[in-house]
Design goal:
alpha/beta; six-stranded mixed sheet; globular
């Protein structure tokens, strides 16, 4: 990655956050940059999350999406994607949400993890992740209500890799039962 990539990532994160805040759609990042790698898509996610945390949001967990083989085949990937859950995204079971709060809404079944401690660094392994998810009921099936912020959304892992602040990210996550 170079300085030009860093500038594009910062601009993409800003555009996605503005689209979420203003409830407007923008051109899909994969249309803007057809060579967008999954690694760079996750860097956009990290930049957007960092801005939200700097603005007072709190990371309360993570989620895994595209966990079924059928969805992976549909999206042309061979592993689940992941996203960060911020405090404003989690709704208690039984909560309601106004449909007008989302753009192009849909609901997806996903797995949500509530962590007992932060996972940091690039070399977090299975044991560290397992230890962080140690409290009873820390792993739950969830309903992820998605509001797409990009036009011409495609089933593409690079678009789906930005849950939360991304072009096709989760706006709210609630327990499934």
């Amino acid at each position: 990655m170079d300085e030009q990539d860093d500038r594009w990532i910062a601009a993409a994160a800003s555009a996605l956050l503005a689209a979420e805040r203003e409830r407007i759609s923008i051109e899909a990042l994969t249309v803007q940059r057809p060579d967008l790698s999954l690694a760079m898509a996750y860097r956009v996610q990290a930049a957007a999350v960092a801005r939200q945390v700097a603005g007072g949001a709190r990371v309360v967990g993570h989620k895994a999406g595209v966990t079924s083989r059928a969805m992976q085949e549909q999206m042309g990937v061979d592993e689940p994607d992941s996203g960060v859950l911020l405090d404003h995204m989690v709704l208690p079971t039984g909560s309601t949400m106004a449909r007008c709060a989302l753009m192009q809404p849909r609901v997806e079944a996903e797995i949500a993890f509530r962590l007992g401690c932060d996972l940091t660094g690039e070399n977090v392994g299975f044991e560290e992740a397992r230890a962080a998810v140690k409290t009873p009921h820390a792993v739950k099936p969830s309903r992820c209500t998605v509001g797409f912020r990009s036009q011409h959304r495609r089933d593409d892992a690079r678009e789906a890799s930005r849950p939360g602040p991304g072009a096709s990210g989760a706006d709210r996550v609630g327990a499934a039962g």
